[in-house]
Q: What sequence folds into this?
């Protein structure tokens, strides 16, 4: 790599202000291992992006960097006009993130967990909102039970509740269907469709090609930290997309049956 | 004031968690009990104590068992995977720091009260005549070492060998607090005048203010990845 | 920048020359002190080493602040190398001190404020090195910088608290000042300058070494990427 490119600080890439979510030259390194290389993303408000790719491609890292959990090594990210380096607190107010970890406190009850996050996210009329959210994730009966006694699926549902309690305009979903049983999965799919109707912007990393293409209007394939294919979902039939995926990744796609 | 509200919420959350398990407070109190007993064997102390040693014994007990509590402060969050959840919230890193500091400070104070009580019993020495000056020094000293302990707890939570690292980072930096607190406590328990204690008080206050300021400036860097 | 590179070899040669002159000054030129004897000559090494150790940690302090402000890993490298070299010089101080003290004061160690503060300083920066080893890449530089700042700020506070402590316990040994004759003063100045050059040479060499190591690791990382992913 030529010496001039090694400098990390310096001139930041230009951003086009009409996009709602924008990443330019996004690079994330852990030591000398590069998880994301020079990724560009442009999304308008209300778009939803499905991120596909094999394990280790960098999907989770991308979600964490865009979701402000980590800082990029280089490159620039701007979301809803906020720069991720500068306006972190303002940015976090409008983001909801659902990932592998539930971010729930085991000794606290469902109500207490939601009360905590509600307060941290400046939610007004918290108690009403908590009841609302518990209804949405079908956990009203377990309001006063400690989270450590919940099953994995219940914890995941409560985590969804935690993520939506402040009604964020941007949802980041990192393989959100893992751990959910059939019914919960269907309910969550309905919820995501509701997000779309509400005009929320969604970025979802998933292994499920079919679901991703059903729920989102943009799709990208990530391989070893680079976006190797990107397209609007409407423009290409699913079987073609499946072919491209298998070609790029070299793995056969497992069909997912959703009743 | 949103900042105070969020501060209170984090403290409330830590208190409820601790209340339900009582893990931290029990281990801290047991540990300080152990330290008091070991001192007896290590120094061949009789029940009539050499006056000069009281301050030292108390502060060793306070600091060493305080460390066990400090270690848990952030490592618990890290182990349960809730640390990213906390970072994701729109709250400034210093608010998180202060909340953790206040939580650990309060638990440590409970442990210290218990320790003083136990000490009076085990060594037949009463500290009641000196309660308020002792309280002041203990407050300032505890604030000092829990402040730096909280910073280092955040640093070592994600590292390997976290308890060892915490101790290694903690002790060189805590030297001024330990010297000043022990000296001042010693003077108080020997009934010396305020005049003599004052310089130590100044050191403790300076230490507390300086490190609270340093934590304010650097904690955001410690929280981010 | 290229001018500075060209100056590096002459700088190192100059360092060698100055150190030779310093050795001459210490062993031949400087007179033997009346009361303490030959062992006093350790003083010419002990004093500059102490000054440079503190200077090194001051460099770490500034480099840590600059790293947190500019996020340029160059400053993190400077901080790290300054700590390593500082620990070496600090060790020299802590070893030469007792060697001097034993024949002169008949004790290996005193809890003299300056010596004790230097000992705590040594511990602090060894802790810094342990911190760097225990933490992984992304966070390491941030944590180290925070600790570099905290460690240095702690130095004056530690010094004052130990000094206050010592006034209560009377000290056997009083002042360290010597009445120095002119040749001795000159020897001290020569040695001082030589050691400054030595320190700079060592620090710059260490920084260059560290940068080379980082470059090699970077290239290895790129090659691993290329091998596993066949990216052109």
A:
């Amino acid at each position: 790599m030529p010496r001039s490119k090694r400098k990390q600080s310096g001139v930041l890439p230009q951003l086009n202000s009409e996009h709602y979510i924008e990443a330019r030259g996004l690079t994330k390194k852990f030591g000398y291992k590069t998880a994301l290389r020079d990724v560009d993303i442009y999304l308008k408000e209300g778009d939803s992006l499905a991120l596909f790719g094999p394990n280790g491609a960098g999907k989770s890292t991308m979600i964490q960097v865009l979701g402000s959990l980590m800082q990029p090594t280089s490159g620039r990210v701007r979301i809803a006009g906020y720069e991720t380096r500068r306006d972190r607190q303002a940015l976090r107010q409008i983001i909801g993130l659902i990932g592998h970890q539930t971010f729930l406190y085991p000794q606290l009850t469902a109500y207490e967990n939601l009360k905590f996050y509600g307060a941290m996210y400046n939610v007004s009329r918290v108690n009403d909102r908590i009841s609302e959210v518990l209804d949405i994730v079908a956990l009203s009966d377990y309001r006063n039970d400690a989270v450590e006694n919940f099953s994995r699926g219940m914890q995941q549902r409560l985590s969804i509740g935690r993520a939506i309690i402040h009604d964020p305009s941007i949802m980041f979903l990192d393989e959100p269907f893992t751990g959910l049983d059939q019914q919960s999965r269907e309910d969550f799919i309905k919820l995501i469709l509701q997000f779309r109707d509400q005009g929320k912007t969604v970025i979802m990393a998933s292994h499920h090609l079919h679901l991703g293409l059903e729920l989102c209007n943009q799709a990208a394939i990530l391989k070893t930290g680079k976006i190797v294919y990107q397209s609007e979902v409407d423009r290409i039939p699913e079987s073609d997309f499946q072919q491209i995926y298998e070609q790029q990744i070299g793995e056969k796609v497992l069909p997912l049956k959703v009743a | 004031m949103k900042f105070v509200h969020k501060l209170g919420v984090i403290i409330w959350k830590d208190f409820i968690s601790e209340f339900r398990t009582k893990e931290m407070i029990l281990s801290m109190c047991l540990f300080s009990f152990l330290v008091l007993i070991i001192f007896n064997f290590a120094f061949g102390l009789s029940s009539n104590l050499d006056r000069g040693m009281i301050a030292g014994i108390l502060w060793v007990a306070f600091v060493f068992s305080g460390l066990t509590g400090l270690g848990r402060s952030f490592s618990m969050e890290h182990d349960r995977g809730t640390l990213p959840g906390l970072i994701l919230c729109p709250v400034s890193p210093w608010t998180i720091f202060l909340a953790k500091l206040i939580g650990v400070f309060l638990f440590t104070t409970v442990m210290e009260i218990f320790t003083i009580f136990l000490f009076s019993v085990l060594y037949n020495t009463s500290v009641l005549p000196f309660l308020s000056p002792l309280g002041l020094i203990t407050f300032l000293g505890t604030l000092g070492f829990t402040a730096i302990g909280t910073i280092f707890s955040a640093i070592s939570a994600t590292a390997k060998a976290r308890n060892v690292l915490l101790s290694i980072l903690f002790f060189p930096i805590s030297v001024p607090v330990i010297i000043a607190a022990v000296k001042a406590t010693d003077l108080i328990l020997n009934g010396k005048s305020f005049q003599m204690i004052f310089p130590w008080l100044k050191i403790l206050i300076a230490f507390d203010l300086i490190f609270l300021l340093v934590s304010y400036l650097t904690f955001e860097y410690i929280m981010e990845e | 920048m290229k001018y500075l590179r060209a100056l590096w070899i002459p700088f190192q040669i100059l360092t060698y020359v100055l150190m030779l002159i310093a050795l001459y000054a210490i062993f031949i030129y400087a007179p033997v002190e009346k009361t303490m004897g030959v062992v006093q000559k350790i003083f010419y090494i002990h004093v500059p080493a102490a000054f440079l150790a503190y200077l090194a940690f001051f460099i770490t302090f500034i480099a840590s602040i600059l790293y947190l402000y500019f996020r340029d890993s160059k400053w993190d490298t400077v901080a790290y190398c300054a700590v390593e070299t500082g620990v070496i010089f600090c060790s020299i101080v802590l070893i030469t001190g007792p060697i001097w003290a034993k024949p002169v004061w008949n004790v290996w160690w005193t809890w003299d404020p300056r010596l004790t503060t230097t000992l705590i300083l040594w511990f602090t920066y060894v802790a810094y090195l342990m911190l760097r080893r225990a933490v992984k890449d992304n966070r390491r530089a941030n944590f180290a910088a925070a600790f570099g700042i905290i460690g240095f700020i702690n130095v004056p506070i530690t010094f004052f608290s130990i000094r206050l402590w010592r006034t209560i316990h009377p000290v056997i040994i009083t002042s360290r000042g010597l009445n120095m004759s002119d040749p001795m003063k000159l020897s001290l100045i020569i040695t001082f300058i030589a050691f400054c050059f030595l320190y700079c040479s060592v620090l710059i060499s260490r920084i260059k070494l560290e940068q080379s190591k980082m470059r090699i690791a970077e290239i290895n990382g790129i090659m691993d990427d290329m091998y596993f992913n066949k990216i052109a």
